[in-house]
Amino acid sequence: MRRRVTCTVAFCLLTCSFASARAQNDPNAAWKPVEAALGRTGQMQPGEVYKFSLPRRDMKVVRDGVTVAPGLALGSWLAFKKMGDEAMVMGDLVLTEEEIEPVMLKLQQGGIEQTSIHNHLLGEVPRVIYMHISGHGDPVVLAQSLAPALALTKTPFPPATPTPAVAQPAIDLKTTEVEQALGYTGKINGGILQFSIPRAEKILDNGMEVPPAMGTATAINFQPTGGGKAAISGDFVMLAAEVNPVLRALRTHGIEVEAMHNHMLFDQPHLYFMHFWANDDAVKLAQGLHAALSETNSQKPQSK
User: Fold this and answer.
1) pTM of the predicted structure, to 2 decimals
2) Distance (Å, rounded) from C-alpha 215 to C-alpha 199?
3) Interior angle at CA 118, CA 113 and CA 119, nearest 5
4) 2-6, 45-49, 182-186: which range is least confident on average?
5) What is the spatial distance between Cα 283 and Cα 277, in angstroms, rounded to a whole number?
6) What is the tens place of the pLDDT at every residue in 216-272?
7) CA dihedral 179, 48, 72, 281 (to 10 degrees)
8) Hey, what domains does the chain have and what are their CATH numbers?
């Protein structure tokens, strides 16, 4: 009997050892319970951030005659990062006006805090509201609190069978010229040319580092609208002293400022987020955005 118990213990230890080695070889493995709790799959991002993209493909939103693509301004997301024995989650939920109150109540009941509720666009139809959230604790428990709140929205689930990764098709935009004018390299995602430009400083929230993948990078999106034009949207991430220089640079170049507000409550340094919109020649708009970026302490483009 004693020998059988000894063998069983040894087997368990060996199994745990294999599981630990597997988790080390596959950093995504540790996040499978979180995926199961949310009912969705995520992806590892730089800075050891595990991010869930939740595009509101169910919405048909029109701004100035442009049907807003999910990748332009309708992308909900949740981002987790382990902090010692716990995890931090941050996110931005794209909601209809009818979804705000029930979602907020469900999140509060689950211990998920709201850090800001506001618009990102002006004059869009129907009205869209953005709810920024934050939570700390066991990552699975956090996911279990977020799942029922998401269930109160019409946020689509991903396909049951994941589609194979394919190269993004070319879009109707002078991509190279736009990148040269902006000064940064973008990526095509869902028909949108997207740029993510981190700040040079380290950003903290409640003393914990918040990597760019958790929403602290300036986001700039181009949606082609034909004839070399594009609708642009996104948000500049700024210190207080940068707010008005950025605002002036955008307005001088014909880019509308839609909103300016916080996304976090206890960030250090305290950041402001300025949302913008325009629909014009894409290269011209990129030049204006470059002028605004020059007023911020953003990281310089990495040399190829």
Assistant:
1) 0.89
2) 11
3) 145
4) 2-6
5) 15
6) 999 999 999 999 999 999 999 999 999 999 999 999 999 999 999 999 999 999 999
7) -10
8) 30-158 (3.30.70), 167-304 (3.30.70)
- The whole-chain average pLDDT of the chain stands at 90
pLDDT band at 118 (very low <50, low <70, confident <90, very high): very high
Q: What is the 3-state secondary structure (H, E, C) of 212-225?
A: HHHCCEEEEEEEEE
Q: How far apart are CA 273 and CA 49, in angstroms?
A: 21
Residue whose structure tokens are 């269930």: 151
pLDDT reported for residue 10: 43
Listed in sequence order, the residues at least 6 apart from 126 whose beta carbon sits closer than 8 Å to its beta carbon are 59, 61, 96, 97
Angle 175-182/282-293 helices, nearest 10 degrees?
Answer: 20
pLDDT at 28: 83
Task: Write out the chain in H/E/C secondary structure.
Answer: CHHHHHHHHHHHHHHHHHHHHHHHHCCCHHHHHHHHHHCCCCEEECCCEEEEEEECCCCCCEECCEECCHHHHCEEEEEEEEECCEEEEEEEEEEEHHHHHHHHHHHHHCCCEEEEEECCCCCCECCEEEEEEEEEECHHHHHHHHHHHHCCCCCCCCCCCCCCCCCCCCCCCCHHHHHHHHCCCCEEECCEEEEEEEECCCCEECCEECCHHHCCEEEEEEEEEECCEEEEEEEEEECHHHHHHHHHHHHHCCCEEEEEECCCCCEECCCEEEEEEEEEEHHHHHHHHHHHHCCCCECCCCCC
Cβ burial 188-213 (10 Å sphere, 16+ → b, else e): bbbbbbbbbbbbeeebebeeeebbbb
